[in-house]
Structure formats: C-alpha cells, structure tokens
Model the fold of this input.
Amino acid sequence: MSRMYSATLWRIGHGAMAHVALGHTRTGRYLRVVYVPDEGRRSAFVITAYPVSFKVVRALRRRHGRGS
Done:
C-alpha cells in the first residue's frame, strides 16, 4: 500500500463530487488518486488509485519544474 506524499495537481471531477489528485509517494512512484472528501473532517474516501504513465510524469515535470 502506498501513500501519496505530495500532490502536485488537484482537479474537481464530474459533478463536483469526486476529486482527482496527481502526485508522488515517498518512494518516488507517481499516482493518480480519485477520491471524495469527507465533509467536516480532514479525511477522504479513496475511490481508486493507479500509477501514471511515463508520458504523464514527463508532462507534469515539464509543467511544474524539475523540483516536483
């Protein structure tokens, strides 16, 4: 099980219920996580999480700089 260490990009998905975060774990793997934030708490219900392709990682680094 991996935990996202730093989310670089957030988006609100369809219907403003699900959110999408794109970021990396402490081990350096990049993940895309789809989740629904829990109202009134600092937690979320994770719907799915999956690794992203090298093309997406390269585009993310280009967009946000090498330090991401």
The helical segments are 54-64.
